[in-house]
């Protein structure tokens, strides 16, 4: 293998890593905690994602259905050409849409975004730069959404124009959209907010919940979402009892299933056999045979007892001990073979690299 081939493989590997990082997949609220909202990613993106999740529907086949008209400019929606190649190319007949432009001059005829998304509620989003967050989605047919992404424009200070930032473009799964729908604006009572916090493993207390209710009012659920994702991003996640799935009983991972405990140090004994000799009467298992008829020689017959005692008991014990030792050999052999294989592989790779350099 030449040095050029090695460099080619290295470039391919790095390109795969960059592609994965540019289009990460967000599958849960815990995944949202890993996104730097309020820093390199605006909080406006989180508010827009909350709005989108609570303004779509799911059919019986778990497909996402539109509830607005993207071709009419609803919520600042228009076609997206994907000229920068941030997303994959779609099959013929499908196209990308972008949603979230809060410029009032853009969607004159469409439905406007709510005030908490447009930034009119400054106490929700603070003083950050607005109109950077976007939702990208593709359509199957006229009203069925296929893929959903969250992205953003570069900051105006960087002079990148209206292109999207591929590093902060993330795919949104149906599972995350369903979790975001639990933060519905209809749920703003203290008990409901507490239940949501418990479901997502939040450490928020009643005093903080009351403060969020008083500050955000009807948007208390959005304020709770921002608190869980941003304020608790560095806190260890507690077990989510509300969404925890039933798990099978714990087993020792990586260890073979052991037989029932036996006396350590003793070989496995054969099953007990019925020794038909009883110490006390009645003696049903003792076969006392009657003496044969008396003969004329004057000798008396003596009864005899037949006992079912296993023959060569010591030999049975030695055989079981040998079998027990034989069962340990395959495992040790496999470990040795694995170590030898790894050593050979490392040696071959070292030789190849050495030859390629010389």
Strand content: 5-15%
Tally of DSSP β-strands? 10
Q: Based on Cα principal axes, name the global outline.
A: globular
Helix and strand pattern: HEHHEEEEHHEEEHHHHEEH
Number of domains: 3
Rg is 37 Å
Q: DSSP helix count? A: 10
Task: Enumerate the spans where pLDDT stays under 50 for 5 or more consecutive residues.
Answer: 3-22, 241-258, 282-331
Mean pLDDT: 74
Largest sheet: 8 strands, mixed
Structural class: alpha+beta
Provide structural commentary.
The chain contains 10 helices and 10 strands. The strands form 2 sheets. Strands 1, 2, 3, 4, 5, 6, 7 and 8 form an 8-stranded mixed β-sheet that branches. A two-stranded antiparallel sheet has the order 9-10. β2 (57-58) and β3 form a beta hairpin. Mean pLDDT is 74; it is low at 3-22, 241-258 and 282-331. Helix content is 36%, strand content 11%. It is globular, with a radius of gyration of 37 Å. α8 crosses α9 (220-231).
Task: Give a brief outline of the structure.
This protein is of the alpha+beta class and 358 residues long. Helix content is 36%, strand content 11%.
What key attributes describe this structure?
3 domains; 358 residues; disordered N terminus; two-stranded antiparallel ribbon; eight-stranded mixed beta sheet; alpha+beta
